[in-house]
Design brief:
It is built from four helices and 55 strands. The chain is mainly beta. The chain is 8% helix and 41% strand. The protein is elongated. The longest helix has 26 residues. A hairpin with an 8-residue loop joins strand 2 and strand 3. Among the domains are: 122 residues, no CATH class; 80 residues, no CATH class; 98 residues, no CATH class; 194 residues, no CATH class.
């Protein structure tokens, strides 16, 4: 049993090596034992002997040992958690209160926790001028110090967070709470002018809640507060008044008229007294921000120019926070230039284009042109393959999506040389000449004749035969007279004629004609009429045994289009002609229908052949519709490979505008920032009026000149030619007073005993909280 106990004690000592370090030089082991005894009642304990017995019973069971160790760790953790909580409640705060002579003040009330009675702790100083507040919570606490006949003070006491070696320490694995002791010494100033010393601060506060006048208004419900050395108090800042072992902030005096002043809502005046010394005390004045409605003339709201300036009420923010982001009121002149609106330039007309059925007559070479794109009869083809050997001319046909009035008829030509094979035959005159005639046929029509003369020879038995010939792939004749280049070849006819005195054979020889030829070209034999849709392809068929036919695609088919004016979509009758153009598409831009050069923008007037731009023909009738100004029998586009692209640039109507320049004596100097406007159909003028109906000013007049009438019917002012015919009088240069400026006011006062200060707080014109006049 003793051995087991010893082993357990070794385990305990290995888990928690006892170390001790005091956070204060005077903290001794005896102090520690006393503190431990004080905390024993609140700590969880366990029976060591019981744990040893449990250990003896389960030392052979590792799993139970792990459970035991976990339970022990949980106990220690819970105890440490409670110890840390206690550490945060054990701070002691001692405050010593004296008068300016260093005499302790008895009966001074020190309150902790603010104005809530349920949370506030009140204590009164004893004869030594001290009060001790036990168990003050770690963190920030509001403190007030008040005493009859003295200037009360308030501040924030900040103990921050609990700290190791200051609020707790650790031995082994255990946390032991300590008790922090903090102190402050505060000198109260007498509130009796006979025994205390003060400086007086008088002043006035103004604000600009109406920018349409030159007077200033009074801010409402404003309190100005003086802080010692700013809002962050430093114990070394005011020698002899405060010193402390902790941080104190937001230090101010309390008491009506002492260290603070309420601005009178009617007069704007304020007054306060500040505790002072002969050497002076530095104070920072806190002037609060103010939000109030502001009367202002605006011409823009949310970045949109208003139709006319208007008097508005806009919320604004005033005060020190706006000093660096000040946005001045934008000046608005007291007179405006009023121009008549154009009558409406018009919009909504359209042009319609209709395909004109066309004749179709095409022809092009195929042989050797694979990969090319020939254009024939305003049809673009793509030769995918020019094919191979054919014996006769293949047929060719055009495919189209619509039925024409007369379909086009095509025929193909072939090019190459003829091959002749001669074999057999009996009874030819040995040494006799025989003409072999080959007729190239198109139906019954002979297109070309080739003649070959052969001399009969002895076959070795005394029988006369024609020589055996096999010239496939070669020329029958060396002079090239067997070359073939003909349209519409349908076959060949062979005739053998005796040349006198030759004798006809008993049995004629077998003679075979073949053509080593290719398709050379296609041509139109019957012109197509009435094609109203693009050709979709050319198909080939036939060509004889083993023929390899060409492959030809159609890229695009060009058409002319008739043009008609469509007024059904007009929403505003026209007073000025729009700029109307159309763009024909070339094969290069098809099928994107993208615009080509403007040289294709033209019309052709049938019967006269006149050409030009469509604008030459357009006019406006009495109802605002677009019309042609002269009769044409046919108005058509040029060739276009897709429907023409229409472009109508509608005339725009925009009222002319200008700013009015006003002299300092209230007379009109002239115009600036002129815009001549658009959409006028006649000469117009301008009227000078007060910006608002309530604005002063009368009698000014300005005359405009230098107008030009364009071919579209629009009358344009050059935007700069005017003359003042009457300067008028009484106009204001600015409806909003932008001279008020931003916030300006005192930021500090150096209070010397007996001095009187006169301060002015100007809130200025503030920053508007709505997007106006930007």
């Amino acid at each position: 049993m003793k051995t087991i106990k010893l082993n357990f004690l070794l385990v305990i000592m290995a888990l928690g090596v006892f170390t001790f370090t005091s956070c204060e030089d005077e903290f001794t082991e005896e102090d520690f034992l006393d503190k431990q005894a004080e905390l024993a009642a609140s700590q969880h304990s366990f029976d060591l002997e019981k744990l040893i017995l449990q250990y003896e019973l389960m030392r052979e069971n590792d799993s139970l040992m792990r459970v035991f160790q976990a339970e022990l760790a949980n106990v220690i953790r819970d105890e440490n958690t409670e110890a840390l909580r206690q550490a945060g409640l054990l701070s002691s705060y001692t405050v010593t209160i004296e008068n300016q002579g260093g005499v302790p003040l008895e009966g001074v009330t020190v309150s902790v926790g603010g104005s809530n009675p349920a949370a506030r702790v009140d204590a009164v100083t004893d004869a030594t001028g001290q009060v001790i507040i036990e168990d003050i919570v770690i963190g920030a606490s509001p403190i007030t110090v008040t005493a009859p006949g003295f200037v009360g003070v308030s501040y924030i006491l900040d103990l921050y967070n609990i700290n190791y070696y200051e609020d707790f320490f650790v031995i082994g694995e255990r946390v032991y709470p300590l008790g922090r002791r903090e102190t402050s010494r505060i000198t109260l100033l007498s509130a009796d002018g006979a025994s205390g010393t003060f400086a007086t601060v008088n002043g006035s506060a103004t604000i600009e809640t109406d920018l349409t006048n030159s007077a200033s208004e009074v801010p409402q419900d404003v309190t100005i507060v003086a802080y010692l050395n700013g809002t962050a108090y430093s114990g070394s800042g005011v020698s002899g008044f405060f010193n402390s072992s902790v941080t104190m902030s937001d230090f101010r005096f309390i008491g009506e008229g002492i260290g603070s002043a309420v601005v009178d809502n009617t007069t704007g005046r304020f007054s306060m007294v500040l505790p002072a010394t002969e050497g002076g005390i530095s104070y920072s004045l806190m002037v609060p921000d103010v939000t109030a409605d502001q009367t202002i003339v605006i011409d823009t709201r949310d970045d949109v120019l208003l139709a006319a300036p208007e008097l508005a009420t806009v919320p604004a923010r005033y005060g020190p926070v706006n000093a660096t982001s000040f946005s001045p009121a934008i000046s608005i002149a007291g007179a405006k230039a009023v121009f008549p609106a154009p009558t409406g330039a018009g919009n909504g007309a359209n042009l319609t284009f209709t395909v004109i059925p066309r004749d179709l007559n095409i022809g092009f070479t195929i042989d050797g042109n694979a990969g090319t794109t020939p254009n024939s009869g305003n049809v673009e083809f793509d030769i995918i393959s020019d094919g191979g050997t054919v014996q006769i001319s293949p047929t060719a046909a055009v495919a189209t999506a619509t039925t024409p009035t007369t379909p086009i008829a095509l025929q193909t030509s072939i090019i190459g040389d003829l091959d002749l094979t001669v074999a057999g035959g009996v009874g030819y005159t040995i040494g006799g000449d025989y003409d072999i005639t080959i007729d190239v046929l198109s139906g019954a029509t002979v297109l070309q004749t080739v003649t070959v003369t052969e001399t009969a020879v002895d076959d070795g038995t005394g029988n006369g035969v024609l020589p055996t010939i096999d010239e496939t792939g070669g020329n029958i004749l060396t002079d090239g007279s067997d070359n073939l280049n003909s349209f519409g070849v349908t076959g060949y006819q062979v005739t053998v004629t005796e040349v006198a005195p030759a004798v006809a054979p008993t049995t004629a020889a077998t003679i075979t004609v073949t053509c080593d030829c290719r398709v050379d070209a296609i041509q139109t034999t019957t012109t197509g009429v009435g094609y109203s849709a693009g050709i979709t392809g050319i198909t080939f068929a036939g060509g004889g045994t083993g023929a390899a036919l060409p492959v030809v695609d159609v890229v695009a088919t060009g058409f002319e289009y008739t043009i008609a004016i469509d007024n059904t979509g007009i929403t505003v009758p026209y007073t000025i002609l729009p700029d109307v153009n159309w763009y024909n598409t070339s094969v290069a831009s098809f099928p994107d229908a993208s615009a080509t050069d403007t040289d294709v923008i033209s019309y052709t007037e049938a019967g006269t052949g006149l050409t030009g731009n469509l604008d030459d023909l357009l006019g406006i009738d009495g109802t605002g519709n677009l019309i042609l100004t002269r009769t044409v029998t046919n108005l058509r586009t040029g060739i276009s490979y897709a429907a023409p692209v229409l472009e109508i640039v509608e005339p725009m109507a925009m009222t002319a505008s200008a700013s009015v320049d006003i002299n300092s004596d209230g007379t009109i100097a002239g115009l600036s920032d002129e815009d001549e406007g658009m959409g006028y159909t006649g000469v117009f003028g301008v009227t000078i009026m007060p910006t608002l109906a309530t604005s002063p000013g009368t009698g000014a007049a300005i005359q405009l000149f230098d107008f030009t009438t364009l071919g579209t019917g629009e009358v344009q002012w050059d935007g700069s030619s005017w003359t003042v015919t009457d300067k008028g009088s009484g106009y204001m240069q600015e409806l909003n007073n932008s001279a008020f400026g931003a916030y300006s006011g005192p930021t500090s006062v150096y209070a010397v005993s007996g001095e009187v200060f006169e301060l002015t707080v100007k809130y200025g014109s503030g920053v508007r909280l709505q997007n106006v006049n930007q």
